[in-house]
Each structure stands twice: as structure tokens, then as C-alpha cells.
UniProtKB/TrEMBL annotation:
One annotated GO biological process: heme B biosynthetic process
Keyword annotations from UniProtKB, A to Z: Heme biosynthesis, Lyase, Porphyrin biosynthesis
PANTHER family: UROPORPHYRINOGEN III SYNTHASE, UROPORPHYRINOGEN-III SYNTHASE
Protein name: Uroporphyrinogen-III synthase
Gene Ontology molecular function, alphabetical: uroporphyrinogen-III synthase activity
Organism in which the protein naturally occurs: Seriola dumerili
Length: 201
């Protein structure tokens, strides 16, 4: 069976996409077509905040893209050295909250120690944060996307846990989505019409 996956591909440096791998292990061929594209914004502001950990009570990451934005802020060598020598340890003295194993793995690559990777959703993570944090801490810093759900900010606000959000990426339809889908179905129909034959051109 041939399966079409409409999702964001796993980052190249973290190995093959787990869905494709799992389907292949059961004898299925999978094609992955990305449906979204991401544009990073406010990176100068993000960088300033990352290098002032004393102003925040901790960090929250609910998506791999937000971690990617942080990574982009550390591309300059002097920033990277400062991060490694002192800044990451100051953050690690605070709580670094994450949703999901993929995000947690990327956070570890930054040298940070994530909490909450088994929570799975922002709703469950918000309960963990509310249980752990006091209301008189400096605001937790939450770099996020333009279409984030309001579950976590609302839950923290209702329970008096201070939070500062910053939009660091915008989400839009992938520019090649229509073309890629058209190509996929054209090829699928061609193969079906010749009984699954492979034609070399």
C-alpha cells in the first residue's frame, strides 16, 4: 500500500522520519508532502531575551520550530561561546518546560535540561507548571508561533503564573503544496492505469 503523509518532515539531522520508517517496516511505501512553511521573526528580540535569563523564571517550548529559532540566535560564534560558557547554565538553574519528545531532544541539543517531555499536550504541561511554580516568580518566557493555541497562556494566567510570550515564527501554507499534490496524484493515476508498472523515461 502507498501512503500519503501530509505533515512537516523530521529535521534532516535527526534521522529518517519516524512515520516513513514505521510504515516501511510493515511493507508500506510512503510519500511525505509538507503542508506548511515557517518564517522566523523577531529574532533580535528573542536573542536579547535569551541572553538575559535573570529577567525570567524559566523557559517554555511547545514546538520544535521555537527551539529552531533559538538555535538561529546562537549561530554567531561569539553568541555561541557566551551561551556555552555561562548563559545556558543560568537557564538550567531554572525550569525549562517542553511538550513532546521531539522538542525535548532539540532542547537537549542546546545544552538545556527539559522538563515535561512526557506531557504530550500544552494542556497537561500547563498543569505541571501550575503545580511547580509560584505566582511571585519572574515571568516564564514562552517563544511561540503565530497560531499557537491559547490553552497554556490562559491556564497560567487564570492561576496567577506570570508569562511573557514572543512570536518567533509565522505559519503559512507551503508554497509548493498544490504543485506537489498535483504531481503526486498525476503519478499515482499513471501507475494505476498501467497496473503499477514502473516506466523509465
Amino acid at each position: 500500500m502507498h501512503v500519503l503523509l501530509l505533515k512537516e518532515p523530521r529535521d534532516g539531522d535527526s534521522g529518517p522520519d519516524p512515520y516513513i520508517k514505521e510504515l516501511a517496516s510493515h511493507g508500506h511505501k510512503a510519500t511525505l508532502i509538507p503542508v506548511l512553511s515557517f518564517k522566523f521573526v523577531s529574532l533580535n528580540t528573542l536573542s536579547d531575551k535569551l541572553f538575559q535569563p535573570e529577567k525570567h523564571g524559566g523557559l517554555i517550548f511547545t514546538s520544535p520550530r521555537a527551539v529552531e529559532a533559538v538555535k538561529m540566535c546562537l549561530e554567531a560564534e561569539e553568541r555561541r561561546e557566551e551561551w556555552k560558557s555561562s548563559v545556558k547554565d543560568k537557564w538550567n538553574a531554572k525550569a525549562i518546560y517542553v511538550v513532546g519528545k521531539a522538542t525535548a531532544a532539540l532542547v537537549r541539543n542546546l545544552g538545556l535540561n527539559p522538563l515535561g517531555e512526557d506531557t504530550g499536550t500544552a494542556e497537561v504541561l500547563s498543569r505541571v507548571i501550575i503545580e511547580r511554580e509560584d505566582t511571585n516568580i519572574p515571568p516564564l518566557f514562552f517563544p511561540c508561533g503565530s497560531i499557537k493555541r491559547e490553552v497554556l497562556p490562559t491556564a497560567l494566567r487564570e492561576n496567577g503564573v506570570p508569562l511573557e510570550t514572543l512570536t518567533v515564527y509565522q505559519t503559512a501554507e507551503h508554497p509548493d503544496l498544490e504543485k506537489n499534490l498535483k504531481n503526486y496524484f498525476t503519478e499515482a493515476l499513471r501507475l494505476k492505469s498501467c497496473g503499477g508498472c514502473q516506466v523509465n523515461t
